[in-house]
């Protein structure tokens, strides 16, 4: 890229010097020094929502990624995109995956950044972010939110989705009463994170890592584990390294890698 950091996209203006002056002036209103504005910029696509239980720890992940970006010598700039909470979307989150992909692509392309960290985990969120990143083709790296921990009921380990259906079938059959099903309800999903089974969210996390869009060994770290924050910090550092390599998503997500 000819420009970097806050100067990205200035070719869209007639007078680049004036545009730079204007943009930096508004950036200074956010309390950013001239020294910080001279650094490369890493955007952080964040997807928190009160309707997305999978992303409840998003603020901590954004903070950890920002820490890594700063440590590597760049300026982190978080920005929001559409958030897809699997359980609460009607009739299905699949209807909104492409909307999120378009939102992600457009916000990456429209804002001045040299690389982007994509933070998400819920079922359709990761593929939407990867699709958007591939279309924008700016250096990008995926950070998944991680799975929740399992619950316990009468010595049985519980995982949301699978055991939810199993216990509901028992309740309908009359082998589990109302008091017990109410108790199980509070034990199926007990922490922040994606479903603690090998469902779509876990599959997409593994695929992102296998494709090479996430750091090795980070797909299955539980959302509430300290290592998830360490992975977030390392992801921020990796995003800064990507700026120098110029490796873009389409160099990583290829027909051969997808078919592998």
Structure notes:
The protein has 260 residues and is of the alpha/beta class. The protein has 2 domains: 39-148 and 199-259, Rossmann fold (3-Layer(aba) Sandwich); 150-190, no CATH class. The protein has 11 helices and 6 strands. The chain has helices at 16-28, 34-37, 58-71, 97-110, 125-136, 162-173, 178-188, 200-211, 226-245, 249-252, 255-259, and strands at 41-46, 75-80, 115-120, 140-144, 151-153, 156-158. The strands form 2 sheets. Strands 2-1-3-4 form a 4-stranded parallel beta sheet, with helices on both faces. Strands 5-6 form a two-stranded antiparallel ribbon. The longest helix is centred in the C-terminal third of the chain and has 20 residues, at 226-245. The radius of gyration is 20 Å and the shape is elongated.
Which labels suit this protein?
47% helix; 260 residues; four-stranded parallel sheet; alpha/beta; elongated; Rossmann fold
Question: How far from one another are the termini?
Answer: 31 Å
What is the share of helical residues?
40-55%
What is the CATH level 1 assignment of the largest domain?
Alpha Beta
Average pLDDT reading: 93
Strand order of the largest sheet: 2-1-3-4
Main sheet, how many strands, which sense, barrel? 4 strands, parallel
Low-confidence stretches: none
CATH architecture of the largest domain: 3-Layer(aba) Sandwich
CATH overall fold name of the largest domain: Rossmann fold
Q: Number of helix segments?
A: 11
Strand content: 5-15%
